[in-house]
Design goal:
This protein has nine helices and eleven strands. By secondary structure, it is an alpha+beta fold. A six-stranded antiparallel beta sheet has the order 2-1-11-10-7-8, with no helix packed on it. The chain has a five-stranded mixed beta sheet with strand order 4-3-5-6-9, with no helix packed on it.
């Protein structure tokens, strides 16, 4: 290739200044375009996990309620497990499916949904045992604090008032928090991500506790202790699913250290959290960051790994290459604000500031 020769006269040529100004203008416009891309509310994890959890809780209640008889106490552990195991399985399934749907990955949705069912049913066995023990202790304390039951007008009337009511409500909330843990673990198990498992535990504990808090006030003040707990169960179980989903999304949003925001591609505005190391980026459905509808992206195109406190992007021998800020790279330590390109897909890298 011949050398490019620049003469002294070219430096004073107004046409050169125009070209330089045009290039600078284009770079500014590209930067403004990238910075203008925001995540829409429906791609926020709190929204789609919350909707998924709500549907999961409602589905479990809808299926089970016709078979529940409040006048028949049944076998305590078995009846509790059937209700909460089903709720955990249904909620875990819907959260897993939601994750796959948002990523437009049908195989991932099916797999994560199935794992959510299995984990929900399995984990709820020991959590139900522990929850029953703790609730039994709480209700015994509530009875001892209440002492006088002269306020009862019928056998179905709510037995607790004052401090005893508060203790009973807190005891149920604690039990529901524990028994709901299985609802939030499925996605993390399916994706083999410790961070998502921890988010699931935290979200489920808070979601279950809030759902449990609603049960007794509804029974006492709305249904007047009629003995029919269908309304309380409906609100409680659906609230558990809703709050579990919302708080899993909340902890996913607040605990993320690094993420990629798609600024050009089929999921523009979607954030891909870096939740494990390494994270595979590619066009294969099993990739952690699934980039579809781009023929220039290989099934295993690149990976992101944690190196100390930073993250390294590595090209995995792709045909079209991996680019950071317009430069082709083999491996690169990412900095917040870097623009990463795979084929026709463009993402902006973000890091949470430690300051």
């Amino acid at each position: 290739m011949a050398d490019i020769e620049i003469k002294v006269g070219d430096l004073n040529d107004p046409a050169i200044d125009e070209i330089i100004n045009l290039q600078a203008s284009l770079r500014r416009q590209e930067g403004e375009f990238i910075d203008s891309v925001k995540t829409p509310f429906y791609l926020n994890a709190m929204f789609y996990y919350g909707i998924a959890g709500f549907l999961g809780g409602f589905l479990a209640w809808l299926i089970l309620e016709p078979f529940i008889n409040d006048s028949d106490d049944g076998i305590p552990f078995l009846s509790d497990y059937i209700l909460f195991g089903s709720a955990a399985a249904s909620t875990g399934m819907m959260i897993g499916i939601a994750y796959g749907i948002v990523n437009r990955n049908v195989k991932q949705a099916l797999y994560a949904g199935i794992v959510g069912i299995g984990v929900g049913l399995g984990i709820t066995i020991p959590t139900t045992m522990l929850a029953d023990i703790l609730y039994g202790i709480a209700i015994s304390i509530a009875y001892s604090v209440q002492g006088d039951f002269s306020h009862l007008q019928s056998e179905n009337a709510y037995p607790f008032t004052g401090g005893a009511f508060f203790l009973h409500m807190c005891g149920r909330s604690l039990a529901w928090a524990i028994v709901s843990v299985g609802a939030g673990l499925g996605l993390g198990v399916a994706l083999k991500a410790k961070k998502l498992i921890l988010n699931g535990v935290a979200g489920s504990l808070i979601g279950g506790a809030l759902g449990g808090l609603l049960f007794d006030p509804i029974t006492r003040f709305i249904t007047n202790g009629s003995g029919d707990a269908a309304v309380s169960r409906a609100v409680g179980v659906v609230a558990v699913g809703l709050f579990v989903g919302i708080f899993i999304g909340f902890f996913e949003n607040t605990s993320k250290e690094a993420w990629l925001l798609m600024v050009k591609g089929p999921l523009t505005g979607k954030q891909f959290n870096v939740f494990k190391s390494p994270m595979i980026i590619g066009s294969a459905p099993k990739a952690d960051v699934y980039l579809f509808k781009d023929s220039d992206i290989d099934p295993t195109h690149a990976s992101i790994s944690k190196v100390g406190s930073k993250y390294k992007l590595k090209d995995e021998g792709s045909a079209s290459g991996t680019f950071v800020n317009g430069r082709k790279i083999d491996s690169y330590i990412l900095q917040s604000g870097d623009v990463v390109t795979f084929g026709e897909t463009v993402l902006k890298y973000h890091e949470r500031s430690n300051s």
